[in-house]
What does this fold into?
Amino acid sequence: MAKTRLKNIDACVFDAYGTLFDVNAAAAQCAAELGDKWQPLAEIWRTKQLQYTWLRSLMDRYADFWQVTGDALDFAFDTLGINDAGLRGRLMDLYLKLEAYEEVADVLRTLKAAGMKTAILSNGSPKMLEAAAENAGIAGSLDAILSVDDLGIFKPHPSVYQHGVDRLGVPAERISFQSSNAWDAAAAATFGFKVVWVNRFGQARERLPDAPDVEITSLHDLPSIVGVEG
It folds into this structure.
């Protein structure tokens, strides 16, 4: 998709995991202990983490993202035959300190310097998001860190996206929403945001009702897309 310019944008709202923060970073930092299991563990952990958010929402059995992340890690350990409480503790601790992608800090600073409102809107629990933002050095470039914990339901429920509108005081059509998750991008488009799909991993487009406005491979081009000159 061409890097078209979005007009009349007053706020840039970001998904966190996979968009700002590298969800594989925790497992990668334990590669010495995990050996050739580190990448399968990262993939199973992330896949089950997302599945549990969707299933818990449908079952009306909300638990915060910290518990979901731990449950997903336990499933990954069982799947790969790993039984190491110390390693589990280290991986969970590292999830609070995920590395941001290399362009993230500069992009957020550029947007803020231009007067754009910026926020995270994520499934993550407040303590997880605040810890990750502080660790990555981007907390000062954010006007708000918004969690589904305030609502008790996960994305892609429309109330999550409405939460961003309500908290920022900006109409949906004047918000540019960025996500690396194709399903999240589609749901945000259905809600009414202008959507930039950060397709970092070369994913296929989802077969869902609505599509993002713009597709990019990193956040590097976002300022120019929303009319901010770096």
In short: DSSP finds ten helices and six strands in the chain. Residues 121 and 146 are 5 Å apart (CA to CA). The beta strands are 11-14, 117-122, 144-147, 175-179, 194-198, 214-216.
